[in-house]
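Researcher: I'm preparing a figure for a lab meeting and need a structural model of a single chain. I don't have an experimental structure, so a prediction will have to do for now. The sequence is pasted below. Please return the structure as tokens so I can convert it later.
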Amino acid sequence: MPVIRSASSSSALQRRLAVILFAVSIIQYFMVNFLRNAVPGSIFNELQIDLACDAGRLANLAAAFTICHAFGQIIVGPLADRYGGCRVIQIGGFLIAFSNLLFCVARTPFMLAASRALCGVSCSCIYLSIVKECDRFFSDRFTQTIGFVVLCGYIGGAVATAPLVACTARWGWRNCFLVLGLFILAISILYAVLARQATPVPVRPTSFPVKTYVKVLTNTRLLRFFLSYPVNYALYYTIQILLGKKFLEEGGGMSSDAAAICLGILIVYSAVANPVLGMASVWFHNRRRPFYLVMLCAPLVCFSLIIAAILAKGGQPGLVWLFFLAYLCGASISAFSPIAAALGREYNTHEEIGVVTGLINAFAFGATAFFSSLAGIILNRFHDQAVIRADGAVIYPDQAYIITFAIFLAIAVLTFFIGISLPETNGHDISDGRPMRGHLAHFFRLHT
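Model: Understood. Here is the structure written out token by token.
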């Protein structure tokens, strides 16, 4: 006889299945962060030696990923709103596995860039969809849950530093990425099998939301937000994926392993700080603005310290502690992801969270692509003054880094003045402006 389940037992089974699916999607987000940070940053010199290419081409490798990742956010946001996060995660997982397997067998810079471009598009499917699922299952604990998700993801970024450097030194970068691609494929198959047992989310019969994008991009609060937090995040992320490890080796005189460990520590710091800041915002009655002001100041301190340290060391390797302190300030920017996700949710209606989150990431990774290409162009301008090691790695002069970080500092000053006037939300939806008037009235009652 067939087993007849009660409605309550079926509901409990679906809840457990939803939690398992959410956990597996977090593993996929772990792998997304690994892939974002690993190439070219952690294997910069290995790629330069293996492919005999200059910094500009490797910067273009980073740009190929981030540009496609940015445009992918614009497409994936509406797809997640229409089809649900679960369906989009399934497609993204298999594409990530395929792109990674293609990357490890590529023999030319063009094929490497093509595989990274596909990886960028497919990786964009995961975080947006997780945000969508988080809003569906954990709406009352959204900020804390996003903080936990980002914590798990950033651990993947940490694994892409010293552990990856050690593995590539032992087995080679191609073999490491082959194993990684097969693992991602196995996780994607597991997620697809579990998803077939879950109750499907109804498909919303909507077309591409052009009006929604127009509405979001004409929201002056969101526009100022897009031009401040994502741009600051991009400034630091360019260090993380392109310049960070190489600069510590050349400017600080660190070994490859030591530089990778430093970057790993920064990512762990960001990972731990994300849920802490998410909970701190809740403890302070869902206040966002004080935390946002700290975020705006972080890149100013970061790049000022880096430039000061370069000038102070006088052309000789050293002052590693000062570079590390500057990097630590920069890493603080990426620790504000829960605050940023909450602000994007509160400056606009919750129904459009996929579009808003997609645009946040699109601005961030689009800016990263621009800054990565800009850094590559500046470094190549000093190629004639660079020192080429016997193994083919290129050591660039301090002047190249001073100009790069000075431009980054000027951009950080601009974002500070753009974002400083953003209003407080106190955890409320202020998309129509009416709740804000209530906050102001309460403020004046308290101070009169």
